[in-house]
Amino acid sequence: MKKLLLISILFFTACFEESLESKCKKNDNEACFQQYKNYYYDKQYDKAMQMLEIACNNNHLKSCHNIGVYAYNDNVYPRDFLRAIKHFQKSCDLGDVNDCKFIAKLHYDFIKLNKNNFNIALKYSIKLCDLNEYEYCLMAAKLNYSTNKDKANIYAQKACDAKLQEACKMLETIK
Predict the structure, then answer these.
(1) Measured CA distances, 95 to 60, 91, 129 (Å)
(2) If you average pLDDT over residues 76-98, what whole number do you get?
(3) Structural domains for the chain
């Protein structure tokens, strides 16, 4: 009787996994994400990543974020910073504010290495400032300071109004 029950459970589990994978192939992002977890916990990492890729390609925020995390800092998958940034940017564009913050800070920290980092840092700091993330208003003010004092003033004022003292001090130097 125990063997029959065990075989039934194994059969049901196999059917469930196939069902999730077939739903995933039909663009059911939640099924992809659930199947990714199943594969990951079974240490089938390549299959897990395939499920994430399918869902991310269909604009599933959690999947894009997880690919970014694995590409940036994981022991299972090889580190790939460009892939990480690409997926963090996509999850940011899909609405993950924390990934927007990560991208803005990352590019802000590396402006000296590449001018393109300046433009990306500015883009995401403005996006975050518009979402009332006031420390990023200050970042946008700093990025605009040497090239566009009017814009720097606008962003510094917004950050100062939110009681960020560094922004208030910056306003004094802009005037």
Answers:
(1) 10, 6, 14
(2) 89
(3) 24-95 (1.25.40.10)
